[in-house]
Amino acid sequence: MKKCFEKYKTFVMLGKPGSGKGTQTRFLAKETGFNTFSTGDKFRELQKADTPLGHRIADIMDNGHLMPYWFAGFLFQEAVIYLPQDTGIIYEGAARKVPEAELFHDVMGWLERSYKAIYLDISHEESMKRLLKRKDIEGRADDEESKIQTRLSVYEKEIKPTLDVFKNHGTFLEINGEQTPEQVFEEIMKKMEEE
């Protein structure tokens, strides 16, 4: 295993909707053998339950909004808190609001887990193009054009400011997400080796 993955056992994959967070998480997990945790997948799983929680999650997600930071924070903490120190984890789509990003940083510090936030940078137009294509392939309910616009607006207002949290903590890695998935992963690996 590369030396950088001995130093960093925790990663959080960030980016606009459709930036390739899931794909790069899978690539990185295959390379490292690290566990993965997707807040979006967990929310989609919970929303299927015919419970008040499931209905509330469905309402929030169907309208393109974000979960409360404390709920997302609870889920990401639950995923890491019992992991042995030498077991790696890659988060996909965690730390999406400023308080959640600060909580993520504090929790990782308290657990003494060095981490990197990997930001997959794509344009608004590329995000829209990819999500509309994904809608045709996967049929995800939140990939309707009006919901995509809402999600991109939410990204600009609520998620984008979290990037500064990670930049200020010196844990930020920016990647050009408008390449092929293989080229994006190659850039991630190259920049990680420089760490």
Question: Secondary-structure blueprint of this entry?
Answer:
Layout: H1 4-7, E1 10-15, H2 21-32, E2 35-38, H3 39-47, H4 52-62, H5 69-80, E3 89-92, H6 98-110, E4 115-121, H7 124-138, H8 145-159, H9 162-168, E5 172-176, H10 181-193
Parallel strand pairs: 1-3, 1-4, 2-3, 4-5
Please tell me about this protein's structure.
With 195 residues, the chain is of the alpha/beta class. It has one domain (4-193): Rossmann fold (3-Layer(aba) Sandwich), CATH 3.40.50.300. It has a 5-stranded parallel sheet with strand order 2-3-1-4-5, with helices on both faces. The chain contains 10 helices and 5 strands, in the order αβαβαααβαβαααβα. The protein is globular, with a radius of gyration of 16 Å. Helix content is 57%, strand content 13%. The model has no long low-confidence stretch (mean pLDDT 90).
Question: What's the level 1 CATH class?
Answer: Alpha Beta
Largest sheet: 5 strands, parallel
* Arithmetic mean pLDDT: 90
Named at the architecture level, the CATH assignment is 3-Layer(aba) Sandwich
Concise structural overview:
The protein contains ten helices and five strands; from the N terminus they run αβαβαααβαβαααβα.
Question: Any key phrases for this structure?
Answer:
Rossmann fold, 57% helix, single chain, alpha/beta, globular
